Amino acid sequence: MDELAEAEVALGADEPSIASAWLDRALKACRSDPERRLAVLRRRAEVACDEAADDDLADLSSAARRTGQVLDEPGATDEDAERHAFLLLLSGSTGRGRKATRGDPLIAAALAYAARPTDRSLRALTDVAGSDPVRLERAARLVVQRQRHPGAPLATSWLRALDRPPWDRTVARAVRVLGEGLRIAGQRAEAEESDRRWEQEVLGALPAGDERARIATNRALGRLAPADALPGRLERLRRSEERYGASSPLLEPALWALSSDARHAGHHEVAVGALRRLERVLAGRGRAALQDRRVVLGDLRRSLQQLGHFDEAQAAIEALEQVLPKLGQPVPAWLARADLARAMGDLEGCVRNHRRELERCEAGVPPTFGPDGSTTQVVRAWTAQAVALRDRARGSDQPGGDDLDGAVAAGGDPRPGEE
What we know:
mainly alpha; Serine Threonine Protein Phosphatase 5, Tetratricopeptide repeat; elongated
């Protein structure tokens, strides 16, 4: 077999690094054959695009260099240019990506989404992606990488658009992106169910007794528990830091992914470190990052609570209360304060803060707020649960969950907005 054929065998065995080595050898062997050189460069670019880890900026930049080499050849096509522009965009080089594109509408929509990841720009990106598998893959990978919106709908559409055998590596990649998109949305149960369903279909289609293929497919599916994924996340973050600096905004996707896996794996020390750095990076983006800062400060407070660092959790709440008014949201953050009080064992404080939030909801504007508002009903149920928890701890037989009138004022407690 020649080098290209050896590379395909290595890819079939889920050994992309070996495949890349064969492709490098093939490139050296065809210096005097322009047509074959273009074919080898294009295959190297395709493998680089497929195998790049979307939370590893150094890896993405290396892949972008490989896709860019194809454009130096006389026979380069618009498809080669769009692949290069997409990888530049994923690696954070949006300016170069804009220059590299040749008018592809998907790349234009992706650039608009990367610049301003709003609901409107997401709809435009989804519309342009349509039902084309290549466009859906690029749209899904970008949305999941940026972690501003759930990427699961796009990833699901990508899976459905694929017309390939179920054990194909592209399907495995789509499953991995789908799982990541569900986890970003907080749907961990759905993510695990998605992985299990597709794993059964993919593994069930493999030849009986082919253990190597089974292991390779499991790796391609990305079946790693959050704790198992942490070493790789940390290593990719370290490499990105070396390339771009520890405070670069380009580190955002890697920090989001690291903090999420660390929290779900119970490694809250790692999560706190990632979230603190992420909050500092976001603070440098000003008003454009306020919503993201709100999410980060909430996650930071919860991880600090898990570690028993209650003073630092209180400081995170106070930082959150500096952000909320800029988003048009009320302060104090009574529910966050209630959750912290419960974690500290202050069940009376937990009830008191829930009641403060309930009063604020009841005084709000229907239909969301007001006495019968949907949010008010949820907060009322939470308040009743907090009261029941406190009463059980006291050993009281009295429910106390409906006696809400005047509860906040008792004992001279501050009213909402007075702190």
